[in-house]
Design brief:
The complex is a heterodimer. Chain A is an alpha/beta fold. Chain A contains 10 helices and 8 strands. Chain B is globular and about 85 Å long. Classes of the chains: A alpha/beta, B alpha/beta. The interface between A and B is large, with 41 and 48 residues.
Chain lengths: 288, 589
């Protein structure tokens, strides 16, 4: 799936035609009646489109879908999806999603989380969800900034970037989320870009289908509070598909590419291992 | 009046088998129909050579508190036992190892430290162990035999107990332990002349009930299983860890799942997620864990989600005293968290109630869609007693208020008269909801309007009032009826000591009564007011310094409250309370 062609955005489009097309596609079945509260131009719209599209592709039933989020701009996501939504506490999407999935393995559970949510306050949970191989899909909406609190440094803000909380520049080295989850033993690791929702939709589809912990890092511009780092034009230049020869079964290659300062897109790593629920079922069988 | 009320302590170093002897003693006495309670004291550190004390109180009537003074002390380690002499009763008995005396200096031999009036019996535990088992490791069982012989407790019952405990072991372990036991027993019968007054004799034979020997942790785990708990997530912490260990073994074969989380926040997060799916879910922790779970307690109030949290309290603040009992988390349980966050708080007062109220907690949580905090403590968690468990009501296994067909599209937080909203479980088509820690309106959308916040805050408070009317038992009164000089109100594990103290005060002609409530929020305030009106003075004994229950009560009653506040690192005894009752009543007259 790494030879996805880079999509072209049409230069001119008409809204009514777009709406008609979207309705026909059936993806609106996965949208709630609430309008997103994100700023116009926010990358999260692109991610939303991709996730909703993937749901449609897979035919997930809305009443069998559980979307868990934390706090931040990402946190509002469950309100805009039709399904059982849990807007949890700051940083705690993964534990809640884990509990939900273990209790109801028959449901599709999605944990959507932001860079501050997942890598800051909730960073303690990420490696553990990964090493347990809980069968959930964790989508990291990474805009490299705290948006909802209006422009402070996040764990992925580049060093020396000036933000509202670091007027002289951030002294902290940014985290590389893919390395974190690879080190912890995640069995599906991918990266997408909000500006390429069609590519992301393919990744999301694979991630949801994956039996085990799937982690999708999505680069996404914050058009309001980040004027220097993750801008659409800049990201367009920075991102590139993983090289053709990249073998997602090769762990060391995946780690190397994740360490790279180049922002590769696509499936970095995938392996098949029993999921957490499968292991628990197996052990329960043994105890009985 | 009790015919028998004896306290026996076995004191040794870890490795001596001290606690094992205490366990067999309680089991056997239970087989004979006595009511017994044992509470072990041991060091927090795992490495050996710490002091261990098995404390057993035995009576012909139920016992809910430890004894303050000891009738008989059995020493397996003299230097440690010398420290225990301070609590020995005048006229108490000491059994010590009279062999070997090598390496024991005169001043570290317990025999040299006895006050006048004490009864001392030397039994060569070590020698008898060598002779009967060709090893010194069975000193503890020789001592057990000596106890049986000296106090004339049915030796055959002990042997049956030993068979039960060691019968399954490989080789002839059961024969060996019985030989050691017999050696101690026969030595005492042949060589010693009993002169002390300690006796287990009862006038008529005791009624043998279906006793279950268990501690509070075992009782709570059992209550949870019987109440249909099928998800547990936790993080190990003394003294609650055992609950997780039991459920880890018992839940999977029943289709339940147990997750050891990376921390307490994650544990309560997982429980929250599982409960939202409609599974009965629980976590158990101690004070420091509750501190970490605080934000989620508020979250579960806001999202009206049924979670059960056991707090087995220990000495605090901070890491505090992990192996010492205390009751200092009441205000934490009642008020922790930001905002107006009403929740149900339950404090069982005995091992039996740990079983009953844990199961009841699941029912209340599900029916009223609220977190329920169960306040146990180290004493309740670890004290073993022969409990008579109550039958649980099968009808309470399912209490969710499901929406009726045709109600599709109803939000998660419909405002109702009783405050409880219909709650569809995920997987139900047409009822998809979104819950949030944000205030939400009836259509699940976040809302910051004053009228919505007011209405929802009232609704969350109202449903606890519904619970109070329908499902919270009224307080129970003990002791003298009508107007009394002194009323005592206790809570949790100290309630047993309070009831015993009031009974004894009445027997001594003192005018006292006690009021017991297990559910500490919501409270039956009218009943409490009525009780307070009947009492000239009010006493609230509790194991904390700041008088937390007294403070909680003083928000509801208009009378000064005398506190008996102890942070003595050990359970409250009825004598502690009785002395205070006597003092306060004498002051009055």
């Amino acid at each position: 799936m790494n030879d996805i062609k880079t999509e072209k955005v049409p230069e001119v489009f008409y809204l009514d035609e777009e709406i008609k097309a979207v309705k026909e596609k059936g993806v609106l079945d996965y949208r709630s009646k609430r309008l997103p509260v994100w700023c116009p131009g926010c990358g999260y719209f692109g991610i939303q489109t991709a996730i909703v599209g993937a749901m449609k592709d897979l035919g997930v039933k809305t009443h069998e879908l559980v979307v868990v989020s934390g706090i931040g701009c990402t946190g509002r996501y469950p309100f805009f999806v039709r399904g059982y939504g849990i807007h949890a506490l700051h940083g705690r999407a993964l534990p809640v999603a884990t509990g939900a999935k273990v209790a109801r393995p028959d449901l599709t559970v999605l944990a959507v989380t932001g860079d501050g949510d997942c890598l800051g306050i909730g960073a303690g949970h990420l490696p553990h969800a990964a090493r347990r191989n809980v069968d959930i899909t964790c989508v990291l909406f990474d805009n490299g900034i705290y948006g909802l609190t209006k422009g402070q440094t996040s764990p992925t803000t580049p060093a020396a970037q000036v933000t509202n909380s670091h007027p002289y520049g951030s002294p902290d080295r940014p985290l590389k989320p893919l390395m974190t989850v690879l080190a912890a033993g995640a069995t599906f690791v991918a990266r997408g870009f909000a500006g390429r929702p069609k590519d992301l939709r393919v990744i999301m589809r694979e991630a949801i289908l994956h039996k085990g912990f799937s982690f999708v890092h999505v680069l996404s511009p914050c058009v309001t509070f980040d004027k220097v780092n993750y801008l659409y034009p800049r990201l367009e230049e920075l991102v590139m598909p993983l090289p053709k020869r990249h073998d997602y079964a090769d762990y060391h290659m995946a780690v190397e590419r994740a360490m790279d300062d180049e922002l590769f897109l696509g499936l970095f790593y995938k392996t098949e291992e029993p999921s957490f629920s499968e292991k628990l079922d197996d052990y329960a069988g043994r105890s009985g | 009046m009790r015919q028998v009320d004896l306290t026996i302590e076995i004191c040794g170093s870890s490795g001596d088998g001290t606690l094992a002897v205490g366990e067999i003693l309680v089991n056997t006495l239970s087989d004979l129909g006595y009511r017994a309670l044992s509470f072990d004291v041991y060091p927090a550190e795992i490495r050996g050579f710490g002091k261990c004390v098995a404390h057993c109180r035995v009576s012909d009537k139920p016992v809910y508190s430890v004894g303050r003074s000891v009738d008989a002390l059995v020493s397996l380690n003299d230097p440690y036992s010398i420290e225990q002499l301070a609590t020995l009763k005048p006229g108490g008995v000491v059994l010590f190892d009279s062999w070997p005396l090598r390496e024991v200096s005169e001043e570290s031999c317990v025999a040299g430290r006895l006050g006048p009036g004490m009864y001392l019996y030397g039994v060569p535990f070590g020698e008898l162990s060598q002779r009967s088992t060709h090893g010194a490791r069975s000193r503890n069982l020789v001592a057990l035999g000596a106890i049986a012989g000296l106090f004339d407790i049915d030796a055959e019952a002990f042997e049956a107990g030993l068979d039960r405990k060691f019968g399954g072991k490989k080789g002839n372990v059961a024969q060996t332990v019985k030989a050691a036991f017999r050696a101690g027993h026969d030595y005492v019968k042949e060589k010693l002349l009993k002169v002390d007054p300690v006796s287990f004799a009862v006038k008529e034979e005791l009624e043998k009930k279906d006793f279950q020997i268990m501690n509070g942790n075992q009782a709570a785990a059992r209550g949870a299983i019987e109440a249909g708990c099928r998800f547990y997530a936790g993080y190990p912490i003394t003294p609650a860890t055992k609950i997780m260990e039991i459920l880890s073994a018992k839940l999977p074969p029943l289709g339940g799942r147990v997750v050891q989380a990376e921390d307490e926040i994650s544990a309560i997060g997982m429980v929250t997620g599982a409960a939202m799916m409609g599974t009965r879910a629980m976590t158990a922790t101690s004070g420091p864990g509750v501190c970490l779970m605080t934000e989620f307690i508020g979250y579960n109030v806001m999202t009206e989600n049924p979670v059960v949290i056991v707090d087995s309290q220990r000495g605090g603040p901070a890491t505090g005293l992990p192996t010492k009992t205390e009751q200092s988390d009441l205000l934490l349980a009642l008020f922790s968290g930001n905002g107006d966050a009403p929740r149900i708080v339950v404090a069982p007062t005995s091992v039996e109630e740990c079983h009953y109220w844990t199961s009841e907690a699941f029912y209340l949580a599900e029916k009223y869609q609220t977190p329920v905090i169960l306040l146990m403590d180290l004493f309740l968690s670890t004290c073993k007693t022969n409990a008579v468990l109550s039958e649980l009501d099968k009808a309470k296994l399912s209490a969710n208020k499901s929406p009726s067909p045709g109600e599709e599209g109803v939000g998660r937080f419909k405002v109702t008269e009783d405050g409880v909203s219909p709650r569809a479980l995920p997987g139900t088509p047409g009822f998809e909801w979104t819950v949030s820690g944000l205030e939400q309106n009836e259509l699940d959308s976040p809302s910051y309007y004053a009228n919505v916040h007011t209405e929802m805050t009232e609704k969350r408070a109202r449903k606890l009032m519904t619970a109070l009317q329908n499902d919270v038992p009224r307080p129970e009164r003990f002791g003298a009826k009508g107007k009394v000089k002194l009323g005592v109100m206790g809570w949790g594990s100290t309630m047993g000591a309070v009831i015993e103290a009031v009974e004894r005060a009445n027997e001594a002609g003192l005018s006292a009564a006690a009021l017991k409530q297990v559910v500490l929020n919501p409270l039956h305030v009218e009943d409490i007011e009525k009780f307070v009106d009947d009492c000239e003075k009010i006493l609230v004994p509790e194991l904390n310094y700041s008088g937390q229950f007294a403070r909680w009560l003083s928000m509801h009653v208009n009378k000064p409250i005398h506190g008996l506040n102890m942070v003595k690192c050990s359970p409250l005894t009825y004598l502690d309370v009785l002395e205070e009752i006597e003092r306060l009543i004498t002051e009055t007259s």
